[in-house]
Write a structure and sequence with these properties.
The protein is built from 18 helices and no strands. With 422 residues, it is mostly helical. Keywords: Membrane, Transmembrane, Transmembrane helix.
Length: 422
């Protein structure tokens, strides 16, 4: 059996008996329950976030002018119960992906460092699948943070703990990703790694040709590039308020000092954007005007929109699923997919645990049942009070006309005046 990346062919027949694993696939890694639960969780996350984006079930801060244009929204009606329910579901799924990735990384580290001779019992095939299941959990967790940005910003301790776990996972996952490209899948992990480190294998004559080496190095670079780009964006979003805007305040400062950026402050940059928008609002569409629209206004607005996050979510989903599917389908003599279909406890438990995020969603929705009619401001904060009719009108006026909206004749300004009128 050759390595998954077209290394020189080597089957278990060519190897000593102690290098041939008793089972190519491990039920705890390639069992049907484990795989179904992972894929189902990923699909649920993607469908939930896309549905919430379309149905205005995300916090108002997630949407910008580009989103309003794409969705055809002029006035956004915020349903607090729906937002809370979606937030609870996405948070539960995000935690599930984070903890699953951490658990798999710890498990593959124990195997890799020969605890109880696990590396002599585990096939390189099962090890590779475990590595990319952890990779899938990692990238999907990165995608969920886009919908939880405001929630995590307001909880500093939770944010710091999450960041620490996020940083810990790729530190140990990186070595596994490198090894999966140079190990022979049909052998035990110990025998496969005995050939040498990934760099030694790449520099040896074990690989067939320079083109293959370049292809492997390029593929590894893409995987690490996806992880690095995702981590930089997410950590930046959690620690900076203008992380979704380009150029952000720190980028303006750097560009001003290096290439002489025309706007020396955030205020000047906003004014420049408004001037461009005003010039583009005239009916006549000239070629320079079209160029400014498609190369300045649209890209900057798109990168700050949640639609941009949805595109990244789709990329993470396809890229992660393909990596897992590729390793599951590696050709091996007599075996196409080494998946265990035995209904053991270890296969049924992950399937049942899929229900936990839905319980969190139901709890989040029911928690707002008694407060369903309480108005919510445009910032997402709940306005206290007992006279919901007057407060609902006040909230609507603030959202439509701004905080300085004038009251109607005879309408009280505050909750206290409402009580006095009564």
């Amino acid at each position: 059996m050759g390595s998954p990346r077209s290394l020189r062919r080597e089957t278990s027949v060519d190897a000593p008996d102690y290098c041939v694993p008793t089972e190519l696939g491990d039920p705890d890694i390639t069992g049907f329950g484990v795989l179904i639960s992972f894929v189902a969780s990923v699909v649920i996350v993607m469908i939930t976030i896309v549905w919430a984006y379309i149905k205005d079930a995300l916090p108002t801060s997630c949407y910008n002018e580009f989103d309003n244009t794409v969705l055809g929204r002029k006035n956004r009606k915020l349903d607090g119960r729906r937002v809370k329910a979606v937030q609870s579901l996405v948070l539960a799924m995000s935690d599930q992906q984070l903890v699953s990735g951490l658990a798999i990384v710890i498990a593959i580290s124990l195997i890799r460092f020969r605890v109880h001779d696990l590396d002599a019992k585990t096939s390189a095939y099962a090890y590779s699948n475990a590595v990319y299941l952890a990779f899938l959990s990692c990238v999907i967790h990165l995608a969920t943070i886009a919908a939880l940005r405001d929630y995590l910003r307001d909880r500093r301790l939770l944010k710091h703990i999450r960041i620490l776990i996020m940083v810990f996972i790729p530190m140990y996952l990186g070595q596994g990703i490198l090894e999966t490209w140079t190990i022979t899948q049909g052998l035990t992990l110990r025998c496969s790694l005995a050939r040498g480190s990934p760099s030694q294998v790449l520099n040896s004559d074990y690989l067939e040709g320079t083109v293959l080496k370049v292809a492997i190095i390029g593929s590894i670079s893409i995987i690490f590039g996806v992880l690095a780009a995702g981590y930089i964006r997410r950590i930046r979003d959690l620690y900076t308020r203008d992380g979704r805007e380009f150029p952000s305040s720190w980028q303006v400062a750097v560009l001003t000092r290096t290439v002489g950026w025309p706007a020396t402050s955030k205020t000047e940059l906003d004014q420049a954007k408004k001037r461009i928008a005003a010039r583009l609002s005239t009916p006549r569409m000239s070629i320079p005007k079209a160029c400014r629209l498609f190369f300045i206004v649209v890209p900057t607005s798109f990168t700050g929109s949640f639609m941009f996050e949805v595109v990244w979510l789709g990329f993470y989903f396809v890229f992660g699923i393909l990596q897992v599917a590729f390793y599951l389908g590696i050709d091996h003599p007599g075996v196409l997919f080494a998946i265990s279909f035995e209904p053991t406890f270890g296969q049924l438990l992950p399937l049942i645990l899929i229900l936990l995020p839905f319980l969190a969603m139901a709890e989040g929705y029911s928690a707002h049942g008694a407060e369903a009619t309480t108005p919510i401001s445009s910032t997402g904060t709940r306005i206290p009070g007992r006279d919901n009719d007057n407060l609902t009108r006040l909230s609507r006026d603030i959202e439509e006309n701004g905080p300085n909206a004038r009251k109607q004749d005879g309408e009280p300004d505050s909750v206290a005046e409402t009580e006095q009128v009564k």
